[in-house]
Amino acid sequence: MFAFIKNSLASRDIRRRLLFTLFIFAIFRLGVYIPVPGVNAAALQNLNNTGILSLLNTFGGGALQRYSIFSLGVSPYITSSILVQMLQMDIIPKFAEWSKQGEVGRRKLNQATINIAIVIAFVQALGLSFGFNQLSGLGLIVNDSVLNYVTIALIMTTGTMFLVWLGEQITRNGIGNGVSMIIFAGIVAQVPKDFYGFFQNYLANETALKENGWILIAVVLILIVSIVIVVLMERAQRRIPIHHSKKVTGAKSTAHLPLKINSAGVIPVIFATSFMTLPTTIFSLVGTENAGPVKQFFIDLFNLQSPLGVAFYTILLILFTYFYALIQVNPEKVAENLQKQSAYVPSVRPGKETENYITKILNRLSFVGALYLTVIAISPMIANFFAPIPMNLALSGTSILIVVGVGIETAKQIEGRITQRSYQGFLYLD
């Protein structure tokens, strides 16, 4: 009887959170179809294969293709988060001080992140509007005036911050990390359309099926293998044995410290992808016509359809994997907490030596994690240089990492909430 009541309480809470998350998804999908006033979105139809349009359009669930109020997605907020986290590393003393002030400092950093995100979103909206208007032969913006550009940028910036607010509501009242769930919803929403377009372009008739049938087989195999590898790697971990010098009543004298092989999760992929979009926006503002060798170098550097851009994207993935793994685990705090609990790693002295030991293990795991993220993310890009495998599929390497990674983390959170709720119910009923 007690077990039934506990399960009912847990199921009710999870069901409420799932329904709330789906409700937020519905608002997001509705906003995707609300166009920005003063634009002709049909002018973008011929630009579907351009790098930045394909990238932002996939993450935004088709919002940029329709030039909707959610065209920028949450990309500016993610870029702002990257900058703020980097500035905390003693680059700006005030930010480093806030990072050590607990909840009060966290609120100040969140406000700084939002303020920077607003600036980035406004600049990015101006750049995209100006750049796509030029690429579309001046057909995107109906009234080509400064006031109209500013109005469009303000509307798109407001849409981005509204999405960020929706993400916060998911984090508080729904399931999963809000910003990641918004990106997840955008990618999943594009899957049916992208696959339909793939079949239309490559397998339209019997002749095309005979000529391009191997492409279909290759795409399916790549998707299956990639999903299997992502699931295995996201669940893999290294367990460091921990001994307790003071045995607590009812507790084991030995335990373990689990470190995931990919401690950073899918955050490096999201960060690296968002980082690639801002410079492209700036190039859209200044124009790319008659670009000199230096300017052309930077244009190719941030273009995922060029070998140089793929190489730079790989470097970003590796750097962000190491960077975010250290933020997630924080060996200094782990060593400090172990010492407070009278726990230690066998054959390693508590304190600084434990911190160095955990850092060493974490760096080794991050190397494997970075290699895994890089292979999954860039394999389809490299394959596209040698074979006509469509890169606009919503389930490309980068999208697979995000969708499967977010799905696994969300499933873990649901399981954790069920366990927590059942435990609380047990205490109450007992």
How many E strands? 3
Kindly, what is the distance between the CA atoms of the first and last residues, rounded to a whole number of angstroms?
Answer: 12 Å
String of helices and strands: HHHHHHHHEEHHHHEHH
- Residue runs with pLDDT of under 50 for 5 or more positions: 1-6, 426-430
Radius of gyration: 24 Å
Average of the residue pLDDT scores: 78
Morphology = globular
What fraction of residues sit in β-strands? under 5%
Measured as a percent range, the helix fraction is over 70%
State the major sheet: 3 strands, antiparallel
Strand order of the largest sheet: 2-1-3
Q: Report the structural category.
A: mainly alpha
What is the overall number of helices? 14
Describe this structure in words.
The chain has helices spanning 2-32, 51-59, 75-87, 93-98, 102-135, 146-173, 178-202, 206-235, 267-286, 293-301, 307-329, 331-340, 352-386, 397-429, and strands spanning 237-244, 254-260, 343-344. The protein is mainly alpha-helical and 430 residues long. It has a three-stranded antiparallel beta sheet with strand order 2-1-3. Helix 9 (267-286) packs across helix 11 and helix 13 (352-386) packs across helix 14. It starts with a helix and ends with a helix. The model is unreliable at 1-6 and 426-430 (pLDDT under 50).
List keywords for this structure.
mainly alpha; 3-stranded antiparallel β-sheet; 14 helices; 4% strand; globular
Summary, kept brief:
The chain has helices at 2-32, 51-59, 75-87, 93-98, 102-135, 146-173, 178-202, 206-235, 267-286, 293-301, 307-329, 331-340, 352-386, 397-429; strands spanning 237-244, 254-260, 343-344.
